[in-house]
Design brief:
single chain, 171 residues, alpha+beta, Arc Repressor Mutant, subunit A, Histidine-containing Protein, Chain: A, 2 domains, four-stranded antiparallel sheet, two-stranded antiparallel sheet, 25% strand, globular, nickel, metal ion binding, Transcriptional regulator
Length: 171
């Protein structure tokens, strides 16, 4: 079996992200060869996502929504915590910049530990979150295992959500 398909099988079976470095050691090739194999697999249509913690195979059985929210910097922890406590994962943050257009930053938090790390990193680096560019208004791509869980998440963060046409925030 060709190495790239062996890599694909490893990713499909893994429940956690696998770093490119670990794959390169596993298959005794350079990190660049792993990057090349992943690129070829993607070109063939396999959904492999790069996260801060490594590569993940997207099995496609999850629900994803892009939601609009608005809150202060002091509410970041509470918002992310509510999402993961209710079974979701926050993939990114998207803001509209007046000059550059849409800017996206990866968040990739799906556990309370990851939320803690993310918020600690914001605080320790003194970095301002992207949402400050747009006065607290931003989008998140949220992933959940099913519609029921997604609805639970949306209800849990209803105080932060921006709804269109007076729709009910609980969906």
């Amino acid at each position: 079996m060709e190495r790239k398909y062996q890599i694909l099988e490893v990713l499909k079976k893994s429940k956690t992200p696998i770093k490119g470095k670990d794959l390169s050691e596993m298959f005794n090739v350079s990190r660049q060869m792993i990057v090349s194999d992943i690129a070829e697999l993607r070109e063939e249509g396999y959904k492999i996502v790069s996260t801060r913690d490594g590569y993940v195979f997207d099995h496609g059985n999850t629900v994803r929504r892009v939601i609009a929210v608005k809150h202060n910097v002091s509410d970041i922890y509470d918002e992310l915590k509510k999402i993961v406590e209710n079974g979701g994962k926050v993939l990114d943050v998207i803001v509209e910049h007046p000059i550059y257009g849409e800017l996206t930053g990866r968040i990739d938090v799906g556990t309370l530990d990851e939320v803690e790390k993310f918020v600690s990193l914001l605080a320790s680096t003194g970095t301002k979150p992207l949402s400050e560019i747009s006065n607290g208004i931003h989008l998140h791509t949220i992933e959940a295992p099913d519609e029921e869980t997604m609805n639970k998440i949306l209800k849990a963060i209803r105080r932060y959500r921006i709804t269109k046409d007076n729709e009910e925030a609980t969906e």
